[in-house]
Amino acid sequence: MNYVDLFILVILAIFIGIGVWRGFLNEIFTFVGFVVAFLIAFLFYSFLGQYIYQELQIPPGLSNLISFIVIFLFLQIFWSLISAFIYRKIYQKWQNVPRFQTMEKALGAGAGLLNGFVIITLLLLILVIVPIQPKVKTYFSDAKIAAFFVKNTSVLNDKIEKLFVPAANEAEAKIR
Fold first, then answer.
1. Burial state string for 57-81 with b = 16 or more CB within 10 A and e = fewer than 16
2. 8 A C-beta contact, residue 128 and residue 150
3. Is 70 exceeded by the pLDDT of residue 176?
4. Rounded to whole angstroms, how far apart are CA atoms 75 and 59?
5. Which residues of 84-108 are buried (b: 16+ CB within 10 A; e: fewer)?
6. Above pLDDT 70, what percent of the chain?
7. Is the keyword GTP-binding in the record (predicted)?
8. What pLDDT is stored for residue 32 in this prediction?
9. CB 125 within 8 A of CB 153
10. What are the extents of the domains in the chain?
11. What is the spatial distance between Cα 100 and Cα 136, in angstroms, rounded to a whole number?
């Protein structure tokens, strides 16, 4: 186990703590919103990216990345507003049920762990795909826990690579 693995364990513990604090319903709404926003952003970023490229003359890779981020953030904000309303309605109905609070917190830990898995997997995929120094890449790929997150994600790997690598290459070319 190296420092990357230790860092991952600490992050997962933080996500579990947040899950206990926020509760199951909040964490599930967060998870669903994140996944749906991520998938929709992946489906439609190229359309907005093309528009940004044509109108603002930003390189295509960066245009696609910007459009992905804009769509993702817009959907996250939109979902947060909707889910807050739904959460309040559900919570008000169930808050007086015996043991609801205990169950809400316990299940929240699991939902928080699920959120942590998703976030860490995506971050590690991006770090493995994006062109960074080989020494840093090796450090991440040598981590045992990190390898668990990255393996069996080839479908995501290809999609993330298609989005992030051109943007990283264009940004690097601009810097030079």
1. ebbbbbbbbbbbeebbeebbeebee
2. yes
3. no
4. 24
5. eeebeeeeeeeeeeeeeeeebeebb
6. 95
7. no
8. 95
9. yes
10. 3-175
11. 45
